[in-house]
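[INFO] parsing input record for BLUF domain-containing protein
[DEBUG] input buffer:
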Amino acid sequence: MSDARLLYVSKLYDCEDPMNDLFNILTEALNFNSRNAIFGALYYGNGYFVQCLEGDRNKIEDLFYKKILKDPRHKNCEVLYFEDVNDRLFSDWHMKYANIHQDILGFFAEHNLDEFNPYTLNAETIPQFIQILASLNDHAYTLKAS
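[DEBUG] output buffer:
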């Protein structure tokens, strides 16, 4: 088995309560990922998702192509990055949630982007973005509490 890291982006479908849907997505991801030894982080802002997943390559592919792509809460889902890895950056979290953070906003500003839009990430900026995402604290509790 080989481990892989996948980074994808999507838009949240139009809904009345995006925070409730976001909480449900995180809860489902945590339950599924913990049973399947998948790790990662989800970042949400401006109606966009960006999620990094790590684990067995076959399990990551199955999760993305058979589950995430078919989830009606995501639209315009697109893989930006998929590579084999020897080490995991997210091994402490089956699904870490990171909300809007100054480091991410600063990263986008540094690359001449006015706001968070993960579709603008490219081969040059993705590795740095993943490193920043890995360094952020988990905000799942604050999402639940709000």
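[INFO] Confidence is low (pLDDT under 50) at residues 141-146.
[INFO] shutting down worker
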